[in-house]
Amino acid sequence: MAGIYIHIPYCHQKCHYCNFYSSVSKKSKPAFVRSLLKEIELQKAYLHQEIISTIYFGGGTPTQLNTFEIEQIIQHLYQHYNISGKAEITLEANPDDLTQEKIIELSETDINRLSLGIQSFHNTDLEYLNRSHSANQAIEAIKTAQRHQFANLSIDLIYGIPTLSNQAWIDNIQTAIDLGIQHISAYCLTVEAGTALDVFIRKGKMPAIDEEKASQQFEILMDVLYKNNFIHYEISNFCKQGFISQHNSNYWKQQKYLGLGPSAHSYNLVSRQWNVSNITNYIQSVEEKNIVPFEIESLTLIQQYDEYILTGLRTIWGVDEIEILSKYGREMYDYFRKQIELFIQKAWIERQGTIYTLTKQGKYFADGIASELFITSD
Predict the structure, then answer these.
(1) Bridge partners, residue 82, by sequence
(2) In sequence order, what are the beta bridge partners of 265?
(3) What is the dihedral sign for C-alpha 307, 312, 314, 315?
(4) Which partner from 90, 230, 262, 329 sits 20 to 30 angstroms from 222, CA to CA?
(5) What's the CATH code of the domain at 71?
(6) Concatenated DSSP letters for 16-40?
(7) Residues near 375 by beta carbon (within 8 Å), at least 6 away in sequence
(8) What is the pLDDT of residues 174-216, one digit of tens each?
(9) How many structural domains is the chain composed of?
(10) What spatial distance separates the first Cα and last Cα of the chain, rounded to whole Å?
(11) CA nearest to 317, candidates 213, 256, 259, 234
(12) Which 8-state DSSP code applies to residue 58?
């Protein structure tokens, strides 16, 4: 099984915190869609006829495409790839794009999962983030999607926003629960270099992030969702039984995926590649030369081990010492066993048989733990 990710590089406006590649100008959109359809054909050998179990439209904002364009892309994928009849097909969407008319149109396509960029149900937070929708629009978009038979809804929420109190964060989580959301992706606000948020904070025009409050809100998140029967299956992801994101789980479980569109990444277990982050260059190369413009990096065995540790430890499936021994050899296995013992003693890691997973306390230090388990080539 493998997955396909499609990057739609357009947004209504740029959020202050976002460093994903996108453009607010849509003049190139017709040419981009033509190029994307051509890239679908040019890249069809990448996954070697494997069954495609997931398709994911991300961005940017995929709902900046009209429904005909979205359906055209899906049908082109069916023509050139071995798509499972039970494939999970996800579309990221912003609430202000999801009019009743748009939702009805989308319900008539093969899309069976929506991922809504809510971020907060409080307007003060949305203004801080420079989101283009209001809290009321967010709630209405969810309810309208539910009325039109979208039974698999995911929403994104952000914690650690300076304008977000702990009580308001509890309210955000409870609102999602009360609305019957099946899947929640919750991320700590981070200040990425070069973003508008980075500039505003450095100039003192916006308050900085309070790391202690962000840590408190992560704990609140885990506690409230656990009490409401959500499965914490990955550091940032929670779901009701039966609603794990299959597409993202493929990433964490080291499955192959193909990325299409400007800046999209692909991974085939032995190498990763990424398309050029420039719409104009992407279109010119694909349309005029029939060449997908990308860079590629072949992964050493050490890099493959590090990737396995990084992704596996973030999940409830953890990392398996038997897999480490069989795939990466005795030397890396011995290193892993030695290094991880410290975190077991700290009660940040627990072991069940041959599987190692993070404890609740360990989830606060996931990246640091992983980095201590990495093997560098230096």
Answers:
(1) 51
(2) 274
(3) positive
(4) 90
(5) 3.80.30.20
(6) TT--S--BS--TTHHHHHHHHHHHH
(7) 302, 305, 306, 332, 335
(8) 999 999 999 999 999 998 888 888 899 889 888 888 999 999 9
(9) 2
(10) 35
(11) 234
(12) E
